[in-house]
Amino acid sequence: MKIARHPWTGKPVTISQYRAEFGPPFVGTVKANRPPATCPGCRQNLLIRGEIVAQDHSTFSHFPATPGQPKPFCPIKASASHKYTVLCPVDEDPARTKALRESFFKNWRIHWLQFRNHVGFVDINDFINALKVADKEHVWRYRALQEHEVIIVLMLISDFKPVAGKGKKPLRANWVRFWFESRAQTFSEFWNLSNDQKVIIRVEYEVPEGRRALKPDYACAFEEIDVSTNYLLDRQEGDDAVHAFVESVVLKAFRL
Could you tell me the residue range of the domain that residue 16 belongs to? Predict the structure, then answer.
């Protein structure tokens, strides 16, 4: 990883920033007693690989697993293989399912704008496609799912690859993925967490040209996402204003 959590603040820190604050790994021949940076996804302590020989290619890395001990799960470490899947709940409340979906689509404009705000540059068709997956997989049946959390599902089941622009500047330069912190590996586990433990991170990956899979070393930026109800509760006039084209495409896609 090119980014980690600061040892004390938990905010993003690069290797150069970490070294500027805590110094090099050795003072003479004596190993420096530096506080370890931690992983954005699992909060395990990290080492800096390649720091002594080739600093330009240094990366924050997880320590090797202890022999005989289970490997702690980390979503970023498993970037290429871990996917969040929707498992159809067996204890559906049909009335609640119907009410949740209807309420979401009543407020779809404000949900779309919040979705776009979290992702960065995103096309309305990304939103529509994710919603169609949600319909197909019966996301609305989750008893613990709240309306403001629906876009969490949409973001976590989606892949946001780089998007080229018309000129030299890309519309979305890096690959974007959303992850639960490691305490939750599934949607069901996430819904069972207390609100203060519901942490979602947005991670950007600077993927080399020609590569098609994510690797931890490509992670170059992260931020925690506010998953509270604030965007639904603290609404101002005009908060749900969308472009006429966006309006027509969504209304047509879902026959609203």
Answer: 3-62
